[in-house]
């Protein structure tokens, strides 16, 4: 498909043909007219031609066999991966034991004190309440397992990310090399990271920690580099004019000036680590995620919810506390609350040790068994009742299962069948047309190559199945998201009401969204789509609202002064001016939807996600790895197709 | 517009010693293969637009030469894009010059290695920036002490010295605040204090007051004038504000498109603009506040040397107008008890109206008056005054 790169003849075209979009489309049409009959004649239409696939399963299977055979003998494993693996196990174990030794009271006291120092009294109370709730739900031990894994993973992510970010922040060459890699890593679904790690480390805690690190380090690296590069050039010049050395400039100016970005990076890394630590239960992470995974596998919604609530509480508390640490020190510079001071740290540790000793002496180190609240039973009864009464046959509105069924029959099936019916070359053509219209010929080329790679890998059909789910979910997300976003942009009341909901929704790990949809819709493709919609909706709503609200007030005012109605203002001023934000909302929507649709493979979504899960469960790494690669390609393609052109921005910079 | 002229401390160096900064044939060209532009006389002569289309280069500073004398306030003035900020950054090589020579106290700046250059920046020249360039995470005191910290001065000593400077710029009681809690004028005081704290030989100001409100700006200008008169430190001051330049500058270099179009005292710039650009620039300046009676006076006749109000040679026309109006007679310009000349209504009005008078002869009639002097004479006095070197004016001015 190299011909796609041919540039459009922009000169000597009359009238409407001068429009760049038309020129691009005409070029593509010409290429298609030339190539399509050829391709058709050579390989036929319909699904991806078998002649063009490369069967990777054999070499992959043998590679994975080799790894399994040599894991205990080959020097690479013995002296490199082995040490990493052992160190990770040791560290997680040490943290876990420390947490257990501190007991529930000690951990709660420590969490509350830290929250109090960095974020104030209200969040301290919230932290204590959340930790106690985890215990009350009978989830203290799994919570500590997840926390131990996270502590190690976050420390490693921050170290790796900060080092990479420092390098990229100081060297232009490294920045140019790293940025596209980090950008791409950010759009890939979490599931795609699991298999390569498992191949090397096998299922278990080391693999889970390392997958988490790989997933959570990029935001730290990106934000560190951004912070170091974004420092006010005049401040740096002033520092240089005083004769500072490079080291002095870095330590006294650049790093302190990047404080805000560094803390934001920490916040994002923690959130992504939590998200991944939960998903990594699929590869043996244990803890809360594992409870949810096991419960969902047996459609035990009550047990899933009992483990899901602590995840949500942890997420909200961690997000709020780290976000408060970041925003607490703005330009106004009120840094009276910090954990960094040695005496504060000493006091916090002292109190924790004292509380831990006190509980140990009282013999109440473990969570009192009488004080747990079993919610699985009542929840399951409620779900049973729902299954009996709401699933189907409700007069007029129908039941939730009916809705899911209808959605599957009337939307998902036709879209999937339509996609699979399309000749393979026409799919490539549509991908090229879309991505070239929105972006540049480079993004179009990447998108087409990624799509072709899926065909070559031999997973054309399941990938199109996943694609159909993504398309349906994105359509629903955009309709709902844009409508809500517009409403929130036009009314302060709606925005105020929505904000806390969006805040909570955006902090929750992807995995958690599967629980309520399984309760409502059972298993299948429709619940996967529903979970994806719910997960992607907050981001779309938020970006839309912000984009519309940030429209130049002067333009809006002049429209009002000309007597434009609210509708005219919206359609003629706000939406055209917010075009970039809306495109970004689409892009984010697509990326987030894909991530959850893949995870939906665990609740009957089928397609690529199922292949990965199946590969992991059966130890059939070849199938899993091929599906993982296809997920990467699909993510790349979807991101590039919806990526607004950055050319003008680059030129300005 | 009023121009309250502060008591200006004149340059202390009577005899021209080594200048603090000596700049000779300085070029800064931005763009690909910048070095060939100053080297090639044909390219060097091209106007800016043509140079850009031919080579893709922009010459921000073109063949600039000047000396900054010890103790003077040297103002570089020009509109935005005239290259003045680039020029001042070239002095300490914050921007690397393309060609030419810079010397500080006779030492070649362009030949300095990294350590020597750092030494220069740490101890000899400190800079004050337009947007302050303060570190937002440090207190006022720590910002002021920052330059000393860079030099490796111990914590207690640098804080002590910083506290003195903070008091000197009028920020007592604000040591514990952070820049974000200060107003613009206060922030620039911190910037000024930071530069002063390292006790540099030269202070470099890059449009320090452009971002401030007019009233605050005037306060700060007076602050700088006060500091200069107290300490007599050499200053290089960049500004785009003509009244600021006239108010603070002992000498002014007026820049346009990277070149110095005129270099002289405020009086020379206002009184005898080098070309139409400068003339247009100074058109609205209240000339009576800048010009002195020395340039306006005419030779005294025998009976005039004995009576009439006495004025110093450096008295402004505005002061002379008051004296002449009170006395109703021409005023004498006296220096050390010697009468240099007299100024009367004709000369004073001529200066205010911006009409060149023939100072060398008897009272000149305005050009437009009936029976005016023949036209060719108009150019002659201007030419003569332009040729006057600044040196004779500075030496008797020394007090």
Give a structural overview.
Chain B: It comes from Streptomyces lucensis JCM 4490. Chain B: GO terms for molecular function: ATP binding; ATP hydrolysis activity. Chain B: One of its GO terms (biological process) is response to osmotic stress. Chain B: This is Glycine/betaine ABC transporter ATP-binding protein. The complex is a heterodimer of chains A (653) and B (399). In chain A, 78% of the residues lie in helices and 0% in strands. With 653 residues, chain A is mainly α. The longest helix of chain A has 45 residues, at 75-119. Chain B has 399 residues and is of the alpha/beta class. In chain B, the strands form 3 sheets. In chain B, strands 6-7-8-3-9-10 form a 6-stranded mixed β-sheet, with helices on both faces. In chain B, strand 12 and strand 13 form a beta hairpin. In chain B, helix 8 (155-168) crosses helix 9 (184-197) and helix 16 (317-327) runs antiparallel to helix 17. At the A-B interface, helix 9 and helix 10 of A face helix 5 and helix 7 of B.
Shape of chain B: globular
Strand order of the largest sheet of chain B: 6-7-8-3-9-10
- DSSP, total strands of chain A: 0
Q: Label the overall shape of chain A.
A: globular
Largest sheet report of chain B: 6 strands, mixed
Largest interface: A-B, 23 and 34 residues
Distance between the termini of chain A: 32 Å
Radius of gyration of chain A: 27 Å
| Beta-strand residue fraction of chain B | 15-25%
Q: Can you tell me the residue ranges of chain A where pLDDT is under 50 for at least 5 consecutive residues?
A: 1-14, 329-337, 647-653
> What's the number of helices of chain B?
19
Query: For the residues shown, what is the average pLDDT of chain B?
Result: 80
GO molecular function, one term (chain B): ATP hydrolysis activity
Biased composition (Low complexity) (chain B): 358-378
Family (chain B): Belongs to the ABC transporter superfamily.
Region (Disordered) (chain B): 358-399
